Q: What sequence folds into this?
């Protein structure tokens, strides 16, 4: 009897051979067929790596490091090895800026990758130092097979302008100095001269950790010391560290830990500064926190631009694990791939799990269901860096610092128009004017203070007349700003807040993960509106409110800050409305 199907109550007979044909077609796998040569390439490249889903981004890095690009043929082969859909692998690879995904040509071939990529930082500090001219002049001095691209902040704002030749940063870059690096073949960042494991141990390092693990220090006493010190999260959120430890400790085991060294906020470079000098001070603080909370495994997430730091951490972790002072939890070092959004804690956790770095909706919170669904202690690098000092010197030592009624110490990343840009350790609550005069050697020659960014790209812009406000958590919000990660960018009379806002909004548009409409569309719309000489103030005000109210995470909620500050403090610089 022939097969039949019903459509709108009409019986349509089918040819007897139709069903078997359909079954035959279904036996072939859906999507791109895997090229055996590409499969062999992927097998060889990943021979030393476990084939785990959460290592997808590490696998992609390994392939790109070898082939200088990610072809769709290699992505299909990787999907087969990991037993993932090709769409899932492709969406992760195409999400991150540092992956070059290449589709095949009509004849099935792939274009050859550039021999070398030079990234010129387009962040605000580098733009102030002449990055645009560098970007324009550089291609003429390099071979045609060297690609020159603009990049978001690379975390070296005190050395602006900066170019990165493959993995080697070139500080105070000129077209000639970059061309010399390319010609000499210097494309790898060198390991910084940090305090190594043996030197750190000889100076008393890890004795605190031994005291904790071997029972000479009580968990409750350690937690109380963290509370008394008043240490707050120094990645920008400012949540009390001791309270966070207690919250996660109270959750059921197994518990995990995620350490954020993504440091993508334009103007911020303090974590790299400390990591390059004293990595084990951070690692000991991390392990003390893991002990206090009862953590089973630790995942360290390091931004991809810090190539030298990655080599340093890999080497020092190997030394620590080869001769551990106490039994250690499992420690994994993960490599970011160029996504500012992964500085947000839940987006970072998604990335560690091998996914696109998209923020999660809350609740549940990371402390309850973070990495792999387990309670997770998430911390910024610098917060952990101070743990040993606080516990050895006592909480009052840390709390005793501060000015203008504030407590504690702050590491300020200062860049822009000052004589001595860099990381400056100063009392919490210091004012910008005091910071410049006492720590930065004053303003640069020929420059006068005009405005400043107190908290990087997202912290807003304040005029010089507000340079006597205490710089700390909770002191700047009444003025429409916040300190965040304490990234200070100083502007002078040669700059304009309007131009700074345009630079920052281009950054936010580029870095929006695209998950929610208010941020994805709002950053693009705001950028187009402020590129005009005459700003539509009513529309920008309405757009700002929508982004703040409806964006999922802090990127979309804080992105309007530079625009709002221009309208509030620098409106006289705008062209009058038509």
A:
């Amino acid at each position: 009897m022939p097969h039949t199907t019903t459509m709108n109550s009409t019986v349509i007979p089918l040819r007897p051979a139709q069903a078997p044909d359909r079954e035959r077609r279904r036996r072939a796998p859906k999507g791109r067929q895997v090229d055996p040569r590409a499969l062999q390439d992927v097998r060889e490249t990943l021979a030393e790596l476990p084939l785990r889903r959460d290592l997808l981004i590490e696998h992609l890095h390994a392939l790109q490091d070898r082939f200088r690009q990610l072809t769709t043929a290699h992505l299909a082969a990787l999907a087969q090895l990991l037993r993932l859909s090709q769409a899932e692998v492709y969406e992760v690879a195409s999400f991150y800026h540092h992956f070059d995904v290449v589709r095949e040509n009509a004849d099935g071939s792939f274009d050859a990758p550039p021999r070398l990529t030079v990234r010129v930082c387009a962040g605000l500090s580098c733009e102030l130092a002449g990055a645009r001219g560098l970007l324009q002049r550089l291609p003429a001095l390099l071979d045609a097979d060297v690609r020159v691209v603009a990049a978001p902040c690379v975390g070296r704002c005190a050395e602006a302008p900066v170019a990165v030749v493959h993995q080697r940063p070139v500080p105070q870059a000129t077209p000639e100095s970059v061309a010399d690096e390319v010609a000499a073949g210097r494309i790898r960042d060198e390991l910084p001269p940090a305090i190594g494991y043996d030197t750190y141990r000889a100076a008393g390092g890890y004795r605190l950790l031994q005291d904790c693990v071997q029972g000479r220090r009580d968990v409750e006493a350690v937690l109380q010391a963290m509370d008394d010190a008043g240490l707050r999260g120094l990645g920008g959120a400012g949540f009390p560290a001791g309270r966070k430890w207690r919250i996660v400790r109270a959750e059921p085991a197994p518990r995990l830990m995620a350490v954020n060294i993504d440091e993508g906020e334009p103007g911020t470079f303090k974590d790299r500064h400390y990591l390059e000098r004293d990595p084990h001070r951070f690692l000991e603080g991390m392990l003390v926190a893991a002990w206090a909370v009862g953590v089973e495994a630790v995942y360290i997430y390091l931004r991809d631009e810090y190539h030298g730091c990655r080599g340093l951490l890999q080497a020092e972790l190997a030394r620590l694990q080869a001769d551990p002072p106490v039994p250690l939890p499992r420690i994994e070092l993960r490599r970011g791939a160029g996504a500012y959004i992964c500085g947000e804690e839940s987006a970072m956790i998604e990335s560690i799990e091998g996914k696109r770095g998209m923020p999660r909706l809350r609740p549940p919170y990371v402390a309850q269901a973070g990495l792999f669904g387990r309670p997770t202690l998430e911390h910024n690098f610098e917060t952990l860096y101070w743990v040993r000092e606080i516990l050895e010197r006592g909480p009052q030592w840390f709390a005793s610092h501060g000015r203008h009624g504030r407590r504690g110490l702050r590491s300020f990343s200062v860049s822009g128009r000052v004589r001595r840009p860099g990381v400056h350790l100063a009392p919490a609550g210091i004012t910008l004017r005091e910071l410049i005069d006492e720590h930065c050697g004053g303003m640069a020659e020929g420059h006068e203070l005009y405005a400043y960014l107190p908290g990087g790209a997202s912290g807003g812009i304040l005029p010089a007349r507000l340079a006597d406000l205490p710089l700390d958590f909770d002191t700047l919000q009444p003025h429409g700003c916040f300190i965040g990660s304490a990234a200070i960018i100083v502007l002078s009379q040669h700059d304009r807040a309007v131009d700074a806002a345009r630079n920052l909004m281009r950054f936010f548009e580029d870095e929006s993960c695209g998950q929610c409409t208010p941020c994805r569309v709002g950053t693009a719309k705001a950028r187009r509106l402020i590129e005009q000489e005459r700003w539509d103030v009513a529309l920008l005000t309405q757009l700002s409110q929508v982004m703040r109210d409806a964006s999922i995470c802090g990127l979309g909620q804080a992105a309007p800050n530079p625009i709002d500050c221009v309208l509030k403090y620098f409106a006289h610089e705008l062209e009058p409305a038509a």
